[in-house]
Amino acid sequence: xxxxxxxxxxxxxxxxxxxxxxxxxxxxxxxxxxxxxxxxxxxxxxxxxxxxxxxxxxxxxxxxxxxxxxxxxxxxxxxxxxxxxxxxxxxxxxxxxxxxxxxxxxxxxxxxxxxxxxxxxxxxxxxxxxxxxxxxxxxxxxxxxxxxxxxxxxxxxxxxxxxxxxxxxxxxxxxxxxxxxxxxxxxxxxxxxxxxxxxxxxxxxxxxxxxxxxxxxxxxxxxxxxxxxxxxxxxxxxxxxxxxxxxxxxxxxxxxxxxxxxxxxxxxxxxxxxxxxxxxxxxxxxxxxxxxxxxxxxxxxxxxxxxxxxxxxxxxxxxxxxxxxxxxxxxxxxxxxxxxxxxxxxxxxxxxxxxxxxxxxxxxxxxxxxxxxxxxxxxxxxxxxxxxxxxxxxxxxxxxxxxxxxxxxxxxxxxxxxxxxxxxxxxxxxxxxxxxxxxxxxxxxxxxxxxxxxxxxxxxxxx
Length: 463
Hints:
- The protein is α/β, with parallel strands linked by helices.
- It has 18 helices and 14 strands.
- The chain has a domain of 51 residues: Monooxygenase (Up-down Bundle).
- It is 40% helix and 17% strand.
- Strands 1-2-3-4-5-6-7-8-9-10-11-12-13-14 form a 14-stranded mixed beta sheet.
- Helix 7 runs parallel beside helix 8.
- The protein is globular and about 70 Å long.
- This is F-box only protein 39.
- Substrate-recognition component of the SCF (SKP1-CUL1-F-box protein)-type E3 ubiquitin ligase complex.
């Protein structure tokens, strides 16, 4: 470390603390440690608590030397400045054998034990995609990790406000024990956001479990809950209505083909919850659940649905048709639906007219993502309706056209203001006021090569 009296360093050493903290905020761990060598004042800035409130630790299943160094450095800093930590994210990437999961478990045992003793500020914890049901997790290692995590949650439960255990894949008993850890100190929890999507192992009918109902009943201030449809029941909705109706704003519900989803849920239960939680928005994410009768059992008219995502993935059924869903089911949400995602394999039926009518009937729909076989004429009509303010779409993501027509660029984009279009390759752009492109100007002002270039650009932007 250089002497503070060095005249060449005086201007840097005299930087205000707020400026130093801002500089250090944008540096990674290695650069921070180097910057701390400038002078004593910069060294003291390194110990500012505001720099260590948020940390991400990545445990790579196939670690390179660089990954190993980054992990060990991040771990060292978390232990050194753990008392300042408020937001912690832990990532376990691609563990491919039992040795790595054992190493991860031992590392987390030491880390969580240390934080449990020195930290009283943690409000956010995220450990996603553990997949504890994989064979790389030996039973003893798995049990020890869950025990360590449960102990840590008990210690942090008083001030923890956000928990994300998406993809943990635990048993029903293990999962309920972890959820109960959040209410350990006061027999109730005031956590506001919980993500337990894919938290339980596949194929479990969680909706019929009294253990799960008891665990959820201890949450008294939920604002956002993310989970799977196999957890939904009349009892669960009544519990949410009773204990979190005053605070609940968002339910994110995933329904996968392999999760049990045949349970009967009454519309009255949804209506009661919507009445008790008037600002509630429900977002549905369907994966391979595409048949109309299955969807009709789930998508009840009493649900205040804000967003629907239908993804067929590898769904294949020669008798399946998307048309009844577009005509009979989704229009029930025309007054509330704001986001719609359709990723379907409709090579056996055209859906242009049905989809366009649905979009025009949904007066609050501002986001549309479609991965399907549609004609370019459909996009022309959609953009024309958007230009005429017959719909309020601001973001359109589209891929998969059945045909191409000349003249698309001037006809479709004329008068389009403020719409964001995303091409299949991922390039996005927001269109400002449209250029004056009446057809006669198009024919008069542009040469053949220019027309070809502009048409190519239009396809890149829209497709």
